[in-house]
Amino acid sequence: MKTPQQHVFEDVSTISRRNTRPKTSPNNLENSLSIPVDLIVEILSRLSAKSIARCRCVSKLWTSILRRPDFTELFLTRSLARPQLFFAYETNGEFFFSSSPQPQSLDVNSSPVSINHLKRLPFYGPCKILGLVQGLVGLIDRRFLKGRTRTVPVICNPSTGESLSLSTMKTRRCNVISFFGYDPIEKQYKILSMSRPRYEIQEQRYELQDQQKQQVCEEHQVLTLSTGKMSWRMIECCIPHNPREDQTGICINGGLYYQAFVGGFSKIICFDVRSEKINLIKKDKGMELWRPDFYTLVNYKGKLGALTVVSDKWLELWVLVDAGKQEWLKLIFVMPTLWKTEVAKGHLYSIGVTGTNELVLSSSCISSPFYIFYYNFEKETIRRVEMDEYGKCRVFISLDYVEDVKPIQMFRT
C-alpha cells in the first residue's frame, strides 16, 4: 500500500499529456501519456530564464518542479558554460540591468550585438554595486530609516526580476563600505561590511585621497544569506586598512580581493569567504612602484591578476601563481597597431579577462557609439564590438554573468 507521501511524489514526478479526442471518448485515459520528470527537467533547463519565470505561473505542479534544487542546479551548470557580459546603469531614479552574449566573431570590427534587457530596479539614493557573483548582484542603496540615513544592502537576481532588501549593519556610523562574495564549497553568499569615521569631502582631490590613505575601517561584520534567520556578526581583523571606494572587488574561488590603503600605501586585501578571515596579499617588488589607481584586479585563468597599462606599447600583468606562498609571475604583452591608432586614444579601462583568455576593455568616457575591445593575449590581436545602446550614460560592466533561476525569496526570513 502506497503512503500519501508516495502519491504526492508521483504527482510531482509526472505530467499527463492528453490527445485531442473529445472528453466523452472512453479511450482518453488509455491514450494519456506520462512524461517523466527527468525528461521535463531536461527540456525546461534549455529555456531562457525569462521563459522559466513564465512557466512557473502555469500551475502549482510546474512551480514545484521549476523550484526544485536539482532543476536550479542543472540550469545554473548550463549557464556557467555560456557566461555573458553584464551591464548596469542609472537613469531617472531607476537601475537598469541587461546582458549581452560573448561575441565569437574574430573580425576586428563587428556589427552591434544584441541586448537582453533584464531587471529594472528603483533606487532611492546614490546606488553602488557591491559585486556580481554567480547570477546575483549585490548593491547598496541609501534610505532614510528611523530618523537617519542608512545604507541598505539589496540582493537582486536580474534573470528572474526578484530583489530582496536585507537588514542594515549594526553601527552608529553612516560611512559603510561593503563587498559581496561567494563560497563555492559551502555554496554560500556573504556580505562583508566595515565602517569608518565620516570625513568631509575637500575641494581638492588630493586632499580627499590623503584622508582616505590615513583612515582605518573598524567594526568588520559579515552577513550570510541563508534560509534561516539572517543577522550580522562581528569578525576580527588584524590588518588596519581602508578600502578604496571606487571599486567592487573581485571574487575568485572563494577569495574576495580588493584594494585598500594600509599605512598610507596601496595594498591588496583578501577576505576568505568561507573562513571569514582577512589577509594581506604581499605584492612583488616591481608592483610596489605602481600608483594605487594604475592597476586593475582581474581573474586570469582562475588566479588573481593585477593588470596595468605601462605605455601605448605593452601591458604588464602580474599573476598570483601561489596564494599560499604569495608568489607572483610577471607577464608582458605587446600591443598591436590598432591599440596605438584607435584604442589608446579612447582612455580605456580594464573590465576583466574572459575564460577564453581575452582582456576586455571599455571606454571610460561617454561616447556614441559605445565600443568594447577584446585583446587576445595569445594572438596579441584586438577586435572591436559596438554597443551603441550605451552611448549616453555611464555604465557598470562586468564579466562572467550567468543566468540563475534559483528563487531569491528563499533567503527571506
Describe the overall structure:
Residues 29-78 form the F-box domain. Residues 13-29 have a biased composition (Polar residues). Pfam families: F-box (PF00646), FBA_3 (PF08268). The protein has 413 residues and is α+β, with helices and mostly antiparallel strands. It folds into 2 domains: 4-75, no CATH class; 82-411, Kelch-type beta propeller (Neuraminidase, 6 Propeller), CATH 2.120.10.80. The chain is 15% helix and 42% strand. The chain has 8 helices and 28 strands. The chain has helices at 4-13, 28-31, 37-44, 49-55, 60-66, 69-80, 205-214, 337-341; strands at residues 14-17, 33-36, 84-91, 94-101, 109-110, 116-122, 128-133, 136-145, 148-157, 162-165, 176-183, 188-195, 218-225, 233-234, 242-243, 250-252, 255-262, 265-272, 277-281, 296-300, 303-309, 314-322, 327-334, 348-353, 358-363, 371-376, 381-386, 396-401. A 5-stranded mixed β-sheet has the order 5-27-26-25-24, with no helix packed on it. Strands 15, 16, 17, 18 and 19 form a 5-stranded antiparallel β-sheet that branches. Residues 1-32 and 200-206 have low confidence and may be disordered.
Mean pLDDT: 77
Estimate what percentage of residues fall within beta strands: 35-45%
**How many discrete structural domains?**
2
Q: Low-confidence parts, pLDDT < 50 over ≥5 residues?
A: 1-32, 200-206
End-to-end distance, in Å? 38 Å
Protein name: F-box domain
InterPro entries: F-box-assoc_dom_typ3, F-box-assoc_interact_dom, F-box_dom
Pfam families: F-box, FBA_3
Organism: Arabidopsis suecica
Secondary-structure map:
Layout: H1 4-13, E1 14-17, H2 28-31, E2 33-36, H3 37-44, H4 49-55, H5 60-66, H6 69-80, E3 84-91, E4 94-101, E5 109-110, E6 116-122, E7 128-133, E8 136-145, E9 148-157, E10 162-165, E11 176-183, E12 188-195, H7 205-214, E13 218-225, E14 233-234, E15 242-243, E16 250-252, E17 255-262, E18 265-272, E19 277-281, E20 296-300, E21 303-309, E22 314-322, E23 327-334, H8 337-341, E24 348-353, E25 358-363, E26 371-376, E27 381-386, E28 396-401
Parallel strand pairs: 5-27
Antiparallel strand pairs: 1-2, 3-4, 3-28, 4-6, 7-8, 8-9, 9-10, 11-12, 12-13, 13-14, 15-17, 16-17, 17-18, 18-19, 20-21, 21-22, 22-23, 24-25, 25-26, 26-27
